[in-house]
Amino acid sequence: MTVISLQHVTKDYGHGRGIFDVSFHVNKGTVYGFLGPNGAGKTTAIRHIMGFSKPQQGVVTVNGLDSWKNASTIQVKLGYLPGEVALPEHLTGKQFIQMMMDLRKVKNDTHCKKLLDFFELDASSKVKRMSLGMKRKLAIVTAFMHDPDVLILDEPTSGLDPIMQQRFIDFVRDEKRRGKTILLSSHIFTEVDATCDEISIIKDGHIISSFNKQELLKMTEKVFHVTVENNMYYTQLVQQIEADVKFHLLLKNEQTYELQIGCCPKDLSQLIKLVANFPVSSFSEVTFSLEKHFMEFYDRRVGGGLS
Q: What is the pTM of this model?
């Protein structure tokens, strides 16, 4: 079931700024990663989902409702964490939380207290005295204290220290297990890689790639690091790898007798059989890197332009 849908959405601010013919959808119970550098168009797309901006072309819906025409209805069961947080500095954190509870008509503060404990936030001080990280945590608590079904997260870990960044990743995973639908916009590869099922890459307002992470892992060439015992075996293995079109010799070091070999998943058993003929001191898979895939893909699109 589709919860969030953008169909051929365009918002042109001029001078190449905005989003152009953007289409993607987020299914119920999944985490969708919206990946791209600052200024690529992520926040513009989110503003359309929230109903803050009206598309010049295309349609944006949340749970089947037009996001521009039904913004107030949609936002009742939606949690939104903006990329830039602006809070009333004259209030204490507790006063701001109470104000947001009143606005959202939240009567039970049990979930709010759980969030305060989980993110280790002392909300007693005034907002103007809070650090950037504390303000971010306060925004997280108030965005999700009504336990919404849909979460819209725009650069959610900005301003958080590494410990709280991991805590937020744990939070997203827990919410996914509870069946929540989550759109996570970020330029931080680790949080997208750790949480997302589906990923779209955006560049200059255009979606240039969309993929399922698990399907990508099945299709992507696997890389293995191999070390053999001496120069004779090293030379023989290099020759055999280079002679076989199924394998790619990505790196070699004749001083340490190390190689990095790439192969498609379907050819892995043949690679293992080949390497097993040599006295190997180490054999390990090089972990897939979403960042490496992103940079290779992004770089390919830079020179060729967008079709």
A: 0.76
